[in-house]
């Protein structure tokens, strides 16, 4: 339960709290919010269930608050990255050999992990006026990971 409380605090409650604090300013400036969630929000995970549960809750928060904030002129959307090359995994003490194996084992239709720069481009777009008609959306940028499914082979 300690781990659940921690993950809820970091991945969900902090964002809700910051959103509430920012609403008056965003209302004046007609600003918008882009949260970073995860494609994990749409899958199960036996190894990190609390993480994916909180990311699913963050997606639902974005949809709900988009409906609440739209009349005030405030947009809210989530970017849901797939596997992205960052120092997140190594920073948590996972050995380089394990990271390389994990990278190879991920079945990503485009055949590679995304980059931080690619995710940054989507964040910039989602926050820009070019996305001014978008709110309450969960945008998956995952190299096709969520569309990959085993093929049934018929003899």
Automatic annotation (TrEMBL):
The keyword Oxidoreductase applies. Keywords: Oxidoreductase. GO terms for molecular function: oxidoreductase activity. It comes from Panagrolaimus superbus. It comes from the Eukaryota. PROSITE patterns: ADH_SHORT. The keyword Oxidoreductase applies. This is Uncharacterized protein.
């Amino acid at each position: 339960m300690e781990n659940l409380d921690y993950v809820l605090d970091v991945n969900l409650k902090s964002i809700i709290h910051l959103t509430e604090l920012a609403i008056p300013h965003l209302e004046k400036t007609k600003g918008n919010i882009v949260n970073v969630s995860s494609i994990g929000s749409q899958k199960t995970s036996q190894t990190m269930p609390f993480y994916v549960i909180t990311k699913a809750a963050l997606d639902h928060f974005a949809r709900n608050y988009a409906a609440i904030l739209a009349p005030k002129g405030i947009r809210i959307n989530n970017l849901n990255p797939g596997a992205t090359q960052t120092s997140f995994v190594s920073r948590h003490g996972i050995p380089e050999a394990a990271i390389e194996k994990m990278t190879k084992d991920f079945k990503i239709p485009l055949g590679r992990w995304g980059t931080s720069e690619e995710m940054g481009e989507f964040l910039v777009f989602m926050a820009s006026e070019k996305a001014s008609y978008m709110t309450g959306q969960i945008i998956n940028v995952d190299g096709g990971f969520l569309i990959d499914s085993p093929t049934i082979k018929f003899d």
